Amino acid sequence: MLWTLVLLVVAIVLAVSAVAGLIDAQQACFFGFPSVACPDGQDWRVGLLTFAFFVVPLIWLIGVVVALIGRAVAKRQRERRP
Predict the structure, then answer these.
(1) pTM here?
(2) In angstroms, rounded to a whole number, what is the distance separating the alpha carbons of residues 56 and 63?
(3) How far is CA 24 from CA 12, 15, 38, in A?
(4) What are the C-alpha distances in Å from 5 to residues 8, 11, 12, 56?
(5) I need a surface site. Which of 27, 49, 57, 79 has the fewest CB within 10 A?
(6) Which ranges in the chain belong to alpha helices (H)?
(7) Cα dist. 44→58, 60, 78 in Å?
(8) What distance in Å separates the CA atoms of residue 21 and residue 14, rounded to the nearest whole number?
(9) What is the dihedral of CA 61, 66, 72, 74, to 10 degrees?
(10) What's the CA angle centered on 16, arms 11 and 18, to 5 degrees?
(11) d(CA 29, CA 14)
(12) With contact defined as beta carbons under 8 Å apart, do 25 and 43 qualify?
């Protein structure tokens, strides 16, 4: 349960930070277009948003699978003991 809550908070914080940064960059681009570059797909904030939406849930899933395998192995070891 704690694993899920921690990764959920991490994903939300990263996503909010990335979206806020993209909004600021887009506004700066709008108001100062020729001199200020607009954010594109190569922007680090897009990468951060992608990390928050895809990599953090993948890390969560790997952690859940490892926990389930660990429980199964521990249960088998307990059953083998006389």
Answers:
(1) 0.75
(2) 11
(3) 18, 14, 10
(4) 5, 10, 11, 12
(5) 79
(6) 2-31, 44-50, 56-80
(7) 20, 23, 48
(8) 11
(9) -150
(10) 95
(11) 22
(12) yes
Site of tokens 């200020």: 36
- How far is CA 53 from its chain centroid? 5
Residues 75, 78, 82, CA angle at the centre, nearest 5°?
A: 150
Q: CA dihedral defined by 63, 67, 70, 71, rounded to 10 degrees?
A: -170
Q: Per this entry, what is the length of the chain? A: 82
Q: How far is CA 1 from the centre of its chain?
A: 17
Share of the chain above pLDDT 70, in %: 99
Residue 25 identity:
A
